[in-house]
Amino acid sequence: MTTDTTPYSGPRMPAGGTPPGGPNPPAEPDPEAGAVAGESLTRDAWRRLKQNRAAMVSLILLIVIATVCVLGPLVLPWGLAEVDWNAFTAPPSLEGGHFLGTDANGRDLLTRTLYGGRVSLSVALVASFVSLVIGVLYGAISGYVGGRLDNLMMRFVDIMYSLPFMFLVILLMVVFGRNIFLIYAAIGAVEWLDMARIVRGQTLSLKRREFVEAAHALGVKDSKIVTRHLIPNAIGPVIVYVTLTVPKVILLESFLSFLGLGVQEPLTSWGVLISEGTDTMQGAPWMLLVPSIFLAVTLFCLNFLGDGLRDALDPKTR
Amino acid sequence: MLSYTLKRLLQAIPTLLIVITISFFLMRIAPGGPFDGERQLPPEIEANLEAAYHLDEPLPMQYLRYMGNLLQGDFGPSFKYKDFSVSELILQGFPVSLEIGGLAILLALLLGLPLGVIAAIRRNSAIDYAVMGTALAGIAIPNFVIAPILALVFGVLLAWLPAGGWNGGAWPNLVLPVIALSIQQIAYIARMMRASMIEVLGSHYIRTARAKGLSESQVILRHAIRPALLPVTSYLGPAIAGIITGSVVIEQIFGIPGIGRYFVQGALNRDYTLVMGTVVFYGALIVLMNLLVDLAYSALDPQIRYD
Amino acid sequence: MADKLLEIDNLSVDFQLPTGSVSAVKGVSFDIRPGETLALVGESGSGKSVSSTAAMRLLPELATTSGAIRFKGEDLLQATPRRMRRIRGNAISMIFQEPMTSLNPLHRIGAQIAEVLARHKGTKGRAARGKVIELLEQVGIPEPARRIDSYPYELSGGQRQRVMIAMALACEPELLIADEPTTALDVTVQAQILALLKDLQARYGMAILFITHDLSVVRHFADRVCVMRRGELLESGETAEVFANPCHDYTRMLIDADPHGHKEPVADDVPVLLEARDVRVRFPIKKRLFRDSEYFEAVRGIDLTLRRGQTVGVVGESGSGKSTLGRALLRLLDSQGDIRFDETDLARLDTGGMRPLRAKMQVVFQDPYGSLSPRMTVGEVISEGLRVHHPEFNRHQREAQVIEALKEVALDPAMRNRYPHEFSGGQRQRIAIARALVLKPQFLLLDEPTSALDRSVQVTVIDLLRDLQRRHDLTYLFISHDLSVVRALADTVLVMKEGRVVERGPTEAIFADPQEAYTRELMRAAFIDAAA
Description:
The structure holds 3 protein chains of 3 kinds.
Chain A: H1 41-51, H2 53-75, H3 109-145, H4 147-161, H5 165-176, H6 180-207, H7 210-218, H8 222-258, H9 270-279, H10 286-313
Helix pairs in contact in A: 1-10, 2-3, 2-10, 3-4, 3-6, 3-8, 3-9, 3-10, 5-6, 6-8, 7-8, 8-9, 8-10, 9-10
Chain B: H1 2-29, H2 43-52, H3 59-71, H4 86-121, H5 126-140, H6 143-157, H7 171-201, H8 204-211, H9 216-244, H10 248-254, H11 260-268, H12 272-300
Helix pairs in contact in B: 1-12, 4-5, 4-7, 4-9, 5-7, 6-7, 6-10, 7-9, 8-9, 9-12, 10-11, 11-12
Chain C: E1 6-17, E2 20-32, E3 37-41, H1 48-55, E4 63-71, E5 74-75, H2 81-87, E6 92-95, H3 109-120, H4 125-138, H5 144-147, H6 157-169, E7 175-179, H7 187-204, E8 207-212, H8 215-218, E9 224-229, E10 232-238, H9 239-244, H10 249-255, E11 272-286, E12 294-307, E13 311-315, H11 322-329, E14 336-341, E15 344-345, H12 351-358, E16 361-364, H13 378-389, H14 395-408, H15 425-437, E17 443-447, H16 455-472, E18 475-480, H17 483-489, E19 492-497, E20 500-506, H18 507-512, H19 517-526, H20 528-531
Parallel strand pairs in C: 3-8, 3-9, 6-7, 7-8, 13-18, 13-19, 16-17, 17-18
Antiparallel strand pairs in C: 1-2, 1-4, 4-5, 9-10, 11-12, 11-14, 14-15, 19-20
Helix pairs in contact in C: 3-4, 3-6, 4-6, 6-7, 7-19, 13-14, 13-15, 14-15
């Protein structure tokens, strides 16, 4: 019987692969060890991510911000539109009970910022999800079917790219009125283009990989090839791109709100609050700073997390 | 090269047609009309106005009429700015937006590219972390937060520069808007340049250049920077088109008479012709910038030849 | 004057990785005399490239070195960066394994060569251009006066390696370090490059440090040989002496690493399993949206007959269409012409009709890294075909089959829940074979299954394939650019070039007496021993 582990070759580097000292030489499984569980790439990536301090701090901060936005308003004594007749434009103070001050209408800024956070974060999640679904489906079909259909579908994406995006969203908001579901849909509908391109590129390169050819040779059905081989292997870049889409979407929502095209009273969002804060920043800078800090910290963390995920999942750093 | 350019411009026509068509019909199915705003007009006057602007015709007719005029270079009159045609508005506003946007892009390139290169060379050093941390902040803090803060600090509190106004384009009035507009671009360009520099520095031909005995600065200047510029170049096309057509936020905050605000105002006022004019203008500019990027690409990369 | 040009003295190299320190070279000593050729031989991971790269001080920053590397008495490890730059490309120059990517794609080749002259000799302008043309001519670039203004993408891999050599020779170095300079090239090109190096060495009188994984290449090329394994120097000596009396088992194994054995042809009355007539495959090269595309014909009318138990070897260089042919036979690519498998006309079958046949015709690919899905465990990879062809099996039955298949390829069945990235190249290739075997196929397409493996691993995989064929009466179509492997495994050989069969016949006959000029050229290149 022949094995690779002849007396002549012990632990080896991958054949024709990286020079010794390249990142993470794959450990030769010890045939003597009865261990059977392997380490999947997902667990591997998670371990790498955990070593990235900036990304982990960001992840924790994001969880904290989201939790506070969801639970905070339940605990705080003030309502979203509740007016404190004793405190118009009150600066932040501990005594008055308005920890981060009030706005010109005497509404508690912390409460409003947390409510605004709910809107901003929900827009981010839902719109990113919409773009994810459209983008993944469109890109996967285009890449997998290929040929003329791929050509046509990508031509269409090219045309969409030269559409003035922001104009389109603004038009959609103007046309269908300002409501939050529309914001979800409108932003999702314009943010899917990059996703579609990424997924298509992944699908195209995966399609040519030998393990997909091997699956064809096994007689595996196309639908099974897509679900068992293409999607699990394309998921890494998709996750990374989603974490980068979320901050873009938050930014877009707050931009629309800033222009007065976002959610309507009594609802609010970080963009709306920042817009209000801009008007009063000379007398009441906290009204600008509080929502801005929430927004910036969230975006900061999302970007750090996205970078960290990319480093953890990118096969090139492997 | 010339025939390629012509071909590309011809190919842009269907794209522009689609853009125009979508915008036209989307705009028209929006509830409300251009004369809703101010006072309630007597019905007969409104009817007269609509007839004068051919708004009483069926939509397809209006569409054809608009396209016909467009072919002759006529964007039509603005509904809101009654004394101006759309072309006049764009021609007045564009130079202002172009000046601010052009300076912002220039600043972004002058700062962003070297910062990205330095961060890549000193990868994982304190300089790298500082540059990349700042860049991330530049991306995370939107310009509608940065702009008012700049105006407040430098315009009001320190009073070093005017907090707003155009003043015929005097340079002190330019400084703050240009900075506010460029911060995000600096950040993007620095990040992109760093990433592509790192990739290039790991390539085999850089190893070859080092094996030739070239000094590190020769390796970087002669062999690394040009290939690393390629991804940044393709980003610049749409980015420049977006920036020189003006930023609503910056123009609003600093009170600058550019064309960025026309679109949002036009859309809100149902100023159909103004909206369409801006869309066409922007679309054409994007097409043009993408073409320029591709030509620049072929100048940078000999493998890409257009003929 | 020392008679040693370069002296590596107790060199150690460690890489500081996040996961800990990895020792790549462990106290290695050897030397090169002026004008001689020293071959540094070892398989992947032996530390041979790291040692030579250390001599140029081109290792990444996370490497720490100790010991000494003396060039004409001067310790290069202690030299200032400035001093090192005067030496690199001037007194010592280097060529690399990757000709396709080692030249800057954005600069003309002439400028890239002239850069060395300007840097070290101060030669510029007309004089430099003249010198570059002369160099290009010396390395055998046709029409050097025109080619000097070419960009790298306009040249083939072999030509690019020639340009690299011209660049390395520009300052007439005393030592040329050649790091696997021919590994990425086709065999015929490989032979030409070796001959060129030999010729230039005679002309310039430089020493060559030749790094390779392939001991047979250096038999007639090197004066002395050093054999490395796992960062250690196992043995060194005069080439003839090492080949005649290897004192280490590992060296003996490397010398002996050319696959042995041969296969008896099957009798003429054995039934035909697969028959192909006039197979053609074409690819669109210019896709157009509405008009017909332009095509490139990769396979141009090939006939092929495979009898049960036969192994047909398909030999050819890159671009010959051999892999395309294999994929067309399995209906993984659309093709024209007749393909009959076991009396069934494959052209008449749709995807569903083809499915039952797929269990009988299986494939093993070249790339042991690309052919296993990185997100599936080995057990899942192997059982995937069972799910398709034996849906009636329950989990335990599938598991039993997987275990049996793993035993069949001599892998520990306990590893079935591990992921592919936890295995070495040779082990992965065994997994790929197990995936095919579990379906109990009659026909196996082997598309360069050993090309990405170290020689010592190759031998074991070939033994396995031969053993499996005997036990299961398998029929093989074995595609390879490596003639020595084909000689050991196939009973019939097809030589392909540019989509056509140049020559075919029984292995023994073809190898003993090739009829076509192209086949002879291939043979000469592949078996340098025989030619020299």
